[in-house]
């Protein structure tokens, strides 16, 4: 379908997103699963639910190649994370938080002290058997260049037993964590005791949605049709694509786009 986009003046349209096609179309989010193994990871310092000690901080490395193999080949937002709990921990996890960051590391053999983004936090959570999903309060924008480091932490004032989660053996060292009693599990530093770094990484499910605007706010086409740019000074753009998604969040508040043809 060849789409003719004409510009029309309207009053005070700020950041309007218009879907362009003969039917409504969005860049759909997809739920991906990283790891499908049936092993159980219940090691203190590696399981995200390691309540054998009062405080825990664990980090998981996900390679770009793994995301690519699951169809993640573009920039976009991660909006949730889930773990498949086999055996719930003996108590709830206080101050449970998830952080994410980009990294060029290809293995993780010790605690990585890096600037990261808090994507989820709660005062307390009690995992149950099955998939436990944590919907982010702040989405993580993946750059489609680097690998991803995920950090899970909690701050309890007592201890009981560690919960187990389904896990998969990776071809690289992909998980490491630290733990202690009487510490600050979600602080910036590692904790007193370290688990042995391992290739047995918990299975994870993550919700991902492709980016809906190109560099500089230019229209972003989904599915992509290769490099596309347009001249903001012209009034008509022809697009050879069955779908087009135009993001008018570039400050040009008096314009929007309409499909013809």
- The whole-angstrom Rg is 22 Å
Figure out the total of helices: 1
Order of helices and strands: EEEEEHEEEEEEEEEEEEEEE
The share of residues in extended strands comes to over 45%
SSE diagram, text form:
Layout (H helix, E strand, L loop, with lengths): L1 E8 L6 E5 L9 E5 L4 E3 L13 E8 L1 H6 L6 E12 L5 E2 L2 E7 L13 E5 L2 E2 L4 E13 L4 E9 L8 E6 L5 E6 L12 E2 L5 E3 L1 E7 L25 E5 L3 E5 L6 E6 L1
Antiparallel strand pairs: 1-18, 1-20, 2-19, 3-17, 4-13, 5-12, 5-14, 6-11, 6-13, 6-17, 7-10, 8-9, 8-12, 13-16, 14-15
Overview of this structure, please?
The protein has 261 residues and is an all-beta fold. The chain has 1 helix and 20 strands. It has one helix spanning 64-69, and strands at residues 2-9, 16-20, 30-34, 39-41, 55-62, 76-87, 93-94, 97-103, 117-121, 124-125, 130-142, 147-155, 164-169, 175-180, 193-194, 200-202, 204-210, 236-240, 244-248, 255-260. Strands 3, 4, 6, 11, 13, 16 and 17 form a 7-stranded antiparallel β-sheet that branches. The chain has a 6-stranded antiparallel β-sheet with strand order 9-8-12-5-14-15. The longest helix is centred in the N-terminal third of the chain and has 6 residues, at 64-69. Mean pLDDT is 80; it is low at 1-26, 217-232 and 234-261.
């Amino acid at each position: 379908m060849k789409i003719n986009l004409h510009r029309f003046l309207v009053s005070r349209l700020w950041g309007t997103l218009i879907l362009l096609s003969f039917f409504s179309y969005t860049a759909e989010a997809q739920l991906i699963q990283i790891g499908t193994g049936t092993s159980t990871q219940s090691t203190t310092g590696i399981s995200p639910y390691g309540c054998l000690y009062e405080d825990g901080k664990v980090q998981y490395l996900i390679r770009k190649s793994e995301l690519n193999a699951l169809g993640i080949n573009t920039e976009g937002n991660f909006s949730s994370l889930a773990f498949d709990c086999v055996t719930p921990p003996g108590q709830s996890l206080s101050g449970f938080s998830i952080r994410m960051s980009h990294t060029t590391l290809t293995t993780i053999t010790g605690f990585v002290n890096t600037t990261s983004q808090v994507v989820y936090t709660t005062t307390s959570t009690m995992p149950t058997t099955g998939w436990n999903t944590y919907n982010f309060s702040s989405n993580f924008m993946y750059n489609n260049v680097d690998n991803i480091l995920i950090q899970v932490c909690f701050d309890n004032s007592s201890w009981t037993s560690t919960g187990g989660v389904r896990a998969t053996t990776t071809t690289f060292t992909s998980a490491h964590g630290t733990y202690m009693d009487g510490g600050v599990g979600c602080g910036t530093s590692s904790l007193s005791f370290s688990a042995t770094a391992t290739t047995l990484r918990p299975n994870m499910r993550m919700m991902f949605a492709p980016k809906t605007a190109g560099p500089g706010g230019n229209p972003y086409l989904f599915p992509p049709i290769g490099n596309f740019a347009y001249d903001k000074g012209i009034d008509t753009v022809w697009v050879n694509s069955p779908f087009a998604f135009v993001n008018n969040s570039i400050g040009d508040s008096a314009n929007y786009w309409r499909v013809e043809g």
